[in-house]
Amino acid sequence: xxxxxxxxxxxNTLDLTRLCVESIRQYTQDVPHEIIIVxxxxxxxxxDWLKKQSDIRCIxxxxxxxxxxxCNQGLAIAKGSELLLLNSDTIVTPRWLSNLRTALYSRPExxxxxxxxxxxxxxxxxxxxxxxxxxxxxxxxSFNHSDPSKWERRLTLVGFCFLFKREIYTKLGGLDEQFSPxxxxxxxxxxxxxxxxxxxxxxxDTMIHHFGSASFVQSAxxxxxxxxxxxxxxxxxxxxxxFLQKWxxxxxxxxxxxxxxxxxxxxxxxxxxxxxLDAERAAARRSGExxxxxxxxxxxxxxxxxxxCWNSGKHLRESVASALAQDYPKLELVIADDGSDxxxxxxxxxxxxxKRIRVLHLPHRGPxxxxxxxxxxxxxxxxxxxxxxxxxxxxxxxxxxxxLEQDRNVGMVYxxxxxxxxxxxxxxxxxxxxxxxxxQNLIHVSAVFRKEDFLRAHGYDTNLGYWEDWDFWxxxxxxxxxxxxxxxxxxxxxxxxxxxxxxxxxxSREDMLKTxxxxxxxxxxxxxxxxxxxxxxxxGQFFDWQIFGKRWKAIAEGRIGAEENRWVKLSxxxxxxxxxxxxxxxxxxxxxxxxxxxxxxxTILLQAQLGCSDEEILNQLQENPYMRAFIGWDSNTIEFPxxxxxxxxxxxxxxxxxxxxKMLQE
Length: 666
Hints:
By secondary structure, the protein is α/β, with parallel strands linked by helices. Strands 1, 2, 3, 4, 5, 6, 7, 8 and 9 form a 9-stranded mixed beta sheet that branches. Strands 10, 11, 12, 13, 14, 15, 16, 17 and 18 form a 9-stranded mixed beta sheet that branches. Residues 213-220, 498-506, 539-576, 582-612, 621-645, 647-657 and 659-666 have low confidence and may be disordered.
């Protein structure tokens, strides 16, 4: 079987096992897998429940065989190309297994991987901000993004979530059963993997929940807990002695490197627990210094995250958790409900009880009016708009405000962004350029700005159906303010197929052109100051010069000198008819594929200008909704004939540029 065999031991943990299995069913649909549960003689109804689960392969032991032996029973019947030992008291999360598999197969030398969690040993635990299961999933949705820079070579992995390749099991066999009923069998297997020439990785880019002693459910009584603690301590001491004798290592072996554990080791070294502990303590000291600074600065300005919401209950909790996880200490979250009429959104809104949250219930008026209402109600000095299905990293707000505090000429601070959900990868990566900003929007909607500047710029234009954020950023530039981009990827933009988002709306070509013209009129001063660069950029863009024709004429007549008029004149004197005739004739030789000549020519020029590959241009045509609206037909039907790009450069672009040069010399 090409996939993962997930092996779980069950022993009187029915409620936890159910949670674990349901989370696997929900969040492992992207990876082929099988679930194997070995029940060690449970008496709490686990056996009856397991027998009813058609998607689980089960082994039922009459008595408690212990963890190592039970795992070996599951491993013996597993069919997967990789094997995963998973504790029954875990809850898995979005992208957990796909992330782990990415690390496992990143290099042939990697033999096994594990992840982070809220409560575990071996420096695999991490601070978390959630308090319930929905909060866990929201936290993990923001956290679990594969990042090779966060993979660490480690001496040992904890067995609560232990993924390894089948070739490891083929060479080493199962767990050492001398450590039954449990403890130290995972450390032992880890060293056996290193001894066989493979590496271990902890993936700090992925987390699942582990109940442990930090349980969501009611704990045992103090007397029972103390009795179990003492029994567990005796077992730990016994198995530790077995382990130390087997491997001839001291008690502090987790603080050692591979050269200390395996004399003569020549391979890569690991990150030791001592190094991690020292780094954690240093971070704690820095955090304490930050807290002291904040106590001294009682006048730290309030920041307001404003969240427009319209029928977005499916993702609302995730976005709220992302907003409240900011490390900036003084913030409020203003959620403006734009007349949502679905029950889920209303249910989620009613369940939000954090004292930092205020909910505004508004009639449905659209994104611009909703954002304006939220910002007007906000009490913060700084504003961060966040749509109700997007996510931000915890450091974003504090880093952005630090920039705004230092320079009053900075009007908006944004960051790098990426896509998730239906699409993934970097998003809107073009570096800021004030000239290019007049041709296309370079700043995503979730930039941080001052409320004072928002009021001076009169907010978002409610008469614009589209690009109201672009228009607003230009308004801040009208005030003499400039943007700064943080280099961290702190904003995650959800790309999804449904259209229930507040900001995902259909628009026509006519509406788009009207919006372009309105933006040009509203920011005439900016366009006049940058007209040379704008015309040069527009020459290589895909849309028709006539979009701006009338307005350019009004700007040009009598207000711009002769040389400037020649640029405007040039934009109108391009021999489009001749180019179209040439295209029509040439396309007949290429199989009769029809394309709007101006659009295709502009695309080729844009390719030449930006150095894009043919594949990148084709992807742009197929994926960009603005492109589809402009050309008025479904770009998914576009197919470039063989030799088209070469033909376009040789027969169209070069002759046209030659003619431009000739006209400029006249």
